[in-house]
Protein 1
Amino acid sequence: MKKKDNQQNLGDVVKQLIEYYGLSPKLDEINIGHVWDKHMSKMIIRHTRNLYLNKKTLIIEMDSAALRSELSYGKEQIKNMINKELGKQVVEEVIVR
């Protein structure tokens, strides 16, 4: 079946709507949560209070001082893991609180 000139691929239309309404950062934040759940241990996930993206800074709030300290040493690895998994440069800095 041949497309008419005014027809577009549904995936392209959805991407255009996401960009038009500025939803990309929020979708990136949701996808970061999925990556976090996929790659982190159950203990780290259980002690993560909040995980959000502010501009290109990922802020991780932990309720355990020991885990907070441990994650602070791996900030660069966390950043690289998330960016690699998402296939684009979403996170430039990681802050662990």
Protein 2
Amino acid sequence: MRHFNVTGLCTPDKDYMVDISDKIQKIRGMVDMEEYFTINRARQYGKTKAFVSHQHLRKI
């Protein structure tokens, strides 16, 4: 059963999540072009998930 995780990194099979794949693709494009970017958001916005997802894409 999935739930709302407010204490750490979320996993899709256990936690409710928002699809941020479009944002990850934009980040990947910026990194590939050696551009700077920031993620400046409040708590529980997906900052850690975005970086973990980006690291996973770089391995592919």
Protein 3
Amino acid sequence: MKSEHMRPKIHKGAEEIERGVEAAAGQLANGAEAVVRERDALESGIEDIAQRVRDGTKGMSDEIAKQARLHPLATFGVAFAAGLIVARVLRR
């Protein structure tokens, strides 16, 4: 007799749980979509920054090469001094 009274309550509880699970799944899906959008935006931003760094590095490299051609003796002196410093640091 008691089990007959409990069935509707159990059924109602199961339906509530099912609705809760569906709502949670919907929220997870929305959250996952938001994460994907944020990832895409970050990826695009990183690509832009990387391109600017590449452009800046290329310009700097060209300028260094130009100065090395214009001042070969100074370039040799700087390279020699840098080599001495690196050698001294690596000995320690």
Protein 4
Amino acid sequence: MLKRLLPQLRILRRSGARVVTHPFPIPGLKPVATEQVVSKEDGDSHQIQVWLPSAGPSVL
């Protein structure tokens, strides 16, 4: 699914935007931050990842 978003991420790369995913990684990139958060709704722990497309490899 996220592979289909790579063309849009190429556009974000130019703008300096950050991308946050839950719980799926972006193929070909490494997150700049990974956090565990606890949902206020159900009390479950979830992992979120922050990506900076501009910091990624040329695969974007």
